[in-house]
Amino acid sequence: MRKYRIAGAGAVAFMNRLLTRDIGKLGAGRVAYAVWCNDAGKVIDDGTVFRLGENEFRLCAQEHQQCWLEDSAIGFDVTVEDVTEAVAGLALQGPLSCAVLRRIGLDGIADLKPFGIARFPFEGGELTVSRTGFTGDLGYELWVDPALALVLWDRLMSANPDYRVVPVGSQALNMARIEAGFIQTNTDFVAADFAVRPDRQRSPFELGLDWLVDFRKGHFIGRRALLREKETGPRWRLVGLDVAGNKPARDALIYRGKSRQVGAVTSAMWSPTAKRNIALAVIEARWADTGEGLWAEIYLNRELQWKKIEAPCRIVPRPFFDPPRRRATPALDF
Q1: In this structure, what DSSP letter does residue 223 have?
Q2: Quick one: 15 exposed, middle or buried, by C-beta within 10 A (0-12, 13-18, 19+)?
Q3: Residue 151 belongs to what domain range?
């Protein structure tokens, strides 16, 4: 993740110009999910916004955004600083994440609400904890000076005998985020700045992020284009699919009535948690409204032999996995 510190008297005005949602409603010590678009209303990237103070924000993004942020900040009383190397980030996720943090001495952590921020003294420095994550389960993200990163890691691992703290990589994280129904840049949509073909770009409406677009707050980058799209309707829709069988529909084409191609799968897996064959797919909006008669054309390689499977699928709400402990406050030990 790239991390950017945005601060100054004009920070709120700049963030509201940059993002599609009304960031002025975000209180200090809170975190919000957000997207930002180009003038055509296509999503450049998505990420989390941390309001660290009245006029100070941290924006976390997947792709490099320094140039876009600096260009967008012209005329605003604000500074944009890339702090990626100055802030170490670690995600602690899962049912026992709160118990582990209590074990290492973070008193009161159970009372932290979802998308809240808390600060704790740590080894002569400060540990910032946000109740956020990319898994859709109970979890936290820990932010600390890089000099204390290994100390924090060792402290968390010291809880291993009782709480089975284990490091996981990107594949496990990808499974968790699909179960949560979270989208990923350059996986479920192509970042507008990276798209070679203009028709591969996607708007917030096409990604099912209508709730992140606030036309009442005034002008923001892409507003005019999004207003037009709201009137005409989006061409595409990103949806959740429940696919028959147990063969993951990775890179599958989606058909209506087995004859008309109407979309394609962007992410897919057999979910060991939900015990379902699930997928995220982008399909033509007119078929997303009904969701009837959809089929996934799945290709499997079995010992160098390719096999085609046609599996019926239906549009279902996201997230696929949504445990109550994700939002429970105080967080409980499981």
Answers
A1: H
A2: buried
A3: 88-167
3-state secondary structure of 245: coil
Pair of tokens at residue 41? 């209303």
What's the pTM value of the predicted model, to 2 decimals?
0.93
Q: Which two tokens mark 127?
A: 């540990």
Q: Is 254 exposed, middle or buried (0-12, 13-18, 19+ CB in 10 A)?
A: buried
- DSSP category for residue 325: G
Domain of 99: which CATH number? 3.30.1360.120
116: pLDDT strictly greater than 80? yes
- The number of domains in the chain is 2
pLDDT tens by residue, 53-90: 999 999 999 999 999 999 999 999 999 999 999 999 99
The pLDDT score that the predictor gives to residue 272 is: 94
Q: Are strands 276-284 and 253-256 parallel, antiparallel or unpaired?
A: unpaired
DSSP labels for 267-289? EEEEETTTTEEEEEEEEEHHHHT
Question: Given CA atoms 85, 87, 88, 93 in this order, what sign does their dihedral have?
Answer: negative
**How confident is the model at residue 198, as a pLDDT?**
86
Q: Which amino acid is at 38?
A: N
Residue 310 lies in a domain: yes
Identify whether 145 is part of a domain.
Answer: yes
Residue 252 pLDDT > 90: yes
* Burial environment of residue 156 by CB neighbours within 10 A (0 to 12, 13 to 18, 19 or more): buried
Contact 74, 68 (CB under 8 A): no
Q: Return the structure tokens found at 334.
A: 């499981």
Per residue in 145-166, pLDDT (tens digit) is: 999 999 999 999 998 778 889 9
Compute CA 46 distance to the chain's CA centroid, rounded to the nearest angstrom: 7
The rounded mean pLDDT for the chain is 95
